[in-house]
Amino acid sequence: MTSRRSMLFVPGNNPAMVQTARLFGADVIILDLEDAVAPSEKDAARELVASALMAIDYGPAEKCVRLNGLDACCSEDLVDIVPSHPDLVMLPKVNRAEDIISLAGELDRHERPGQKRIGILAIIESPQGLAEVHEIANSHFRLMGLLLGAEDYTAMVGSTRTKEGAEIAVPRALVVNAAAAGDIESFDAVFTDANDEEGLLADTRLAKNMGFTGKAAVNPRQIKTINDTFNPSPAEIEQARRIVKALAQAEKEGSGVASVGGKMVDAPVAKRALNLMNLARKLGLAS
Amino acid sequence: MKSVKRVAQAGTLESSDIMIIVEPGTNGLRVDLESIVEKQYGQAIRKTITDTLKTLGITDLNVKAIDKGALDYAIRARLVTALSRADIVQRREDQP
Predict the structure, then answer these.
(1) pLDDT (tens digit, 9 = 90+) per residue, B58-67?
(2) Largest CB tally within 10 Å, which of A30, A70, A123, B51?
């Protein structure tokens, strides 16, 4: 469990949006060089994003750049972006583990001595990528998380995208499972109707209940709902606190087993409680 | 010393952006600025442009800039893109 609850996509060639992205409370700001930028403006967007990364204080938010695909101008993006110290880069259209290994190799070549290592987020948005998602999730230590790209995926499969999301139930479950198995994070697809607040809330709750660690957003107005939903609730924090306390007491008494409310606390429950308390403290929700 | 051989342009007329057009010059650095914040920041914008050009070793150039409230980082980025499109600025990996 991490504090990356929300990630906001921002068009990389739009100065107004690039410089105001920090105002909305997103945990990760994704400066987009891919879909949001016209082919003829890729060079301008690269230069603007590189310049913004060096000049703008994004506060506690992590700075991420969505690159163009490996089959497009990803290599040119890296030449400009890596020296500008993003925290993360996001690779679209990841189809196999080798894609991540290839990008990691490029990062190795471009990073300068002493530079903080740049993490990778992978977008799973094709049938092939989903079929190989487990191998992708375990491909490289730089990989921090997987994002489900539902729009591209459903278009490629030929299914109809709906607000309820039944057509992406299996892709969601596969991404969550692969990320958990690889001990990395999982991020749910964007909810594209920025005017449907109830729909966003329902979609975000579903994502959290399925095990996603966060969710992407295309509109700044969606960030608060996503953050609030992924925040541990007071009841969850209290229950985790009881579990952690019971574990500490059991350890003190030399017992390997603790119970809370008559239920035994086994290893997965203990780990979940510890993770939740760490997140709550990081977010200032618990002392 | 470097100079451009052809006209090139970058940026837009949207809010917070700046459109920059560079064209060959023979008489030093000339900046023709039109800005919605000319009174408050005109001098600073001209300085950002000329400082960036001097840093890049460019000595003869005519710059036409139409500013819609761009911050320094955006002014520099648009200028460098225009120069790159005019084949005067090298890619980052080739720069010293």
Answers:
(1) 989 999 999 9
(2) A30
Which residue of chain A has the CA closest to B80? Answer: A47
Q: Is residue A120 part of a domain?
A: yes
Quote the Cα angle for A126-A132-A137, to 5°. Answer: 105
A36-54: pLDDT as tens digits = 999 999 999 999 999 999 9
Which among B71, B72, B77 has the least Cβ separation from residue A47? B77
Q: CA quadruple A52, A54, A55, A61: dihedral positive or negative?
A: positive
pLDDT at A143 over 70: yes
Q: Which amino acid, residue A70?
A: L
Question: How far off is chain A from B94, nearest CA to CA, in Å?
Answer: 10
- For each of the domains in chain B, give its residue range(s) and CATH number, in order of start: 2-88 (3.30.230.10)
CB contact under 8 A, B73 and A43: no
- What CATH number is associated with residue A155? 3.20.20.60
| Domain total of chain A | 2
> Is A1 inside a domain boundary?
no
Q: Closest Cα of chain A to B28: distance in Å?
A: 25
Are residues A251 and A120 located together in one domain of the fold? no
Nearest to B10 among A14, A44, A50 (CB): A44
Whether the CB-CB separation of A285 and A237 falls below 8 Å is answered with yes
Full domain range(s) for residue A272: 234-282
How close does chain B come to A49, measured CA to CA in Å?
A: 8
Cα–Cα distance for residue pair A210/A19, rounded to 1 Å:
34
A274 shares a domain with A160: no
Residue A191, classed as helix, strand or coil, is coil
Alpha carbons A40 and A48: distance in angstroms, whole number: 14
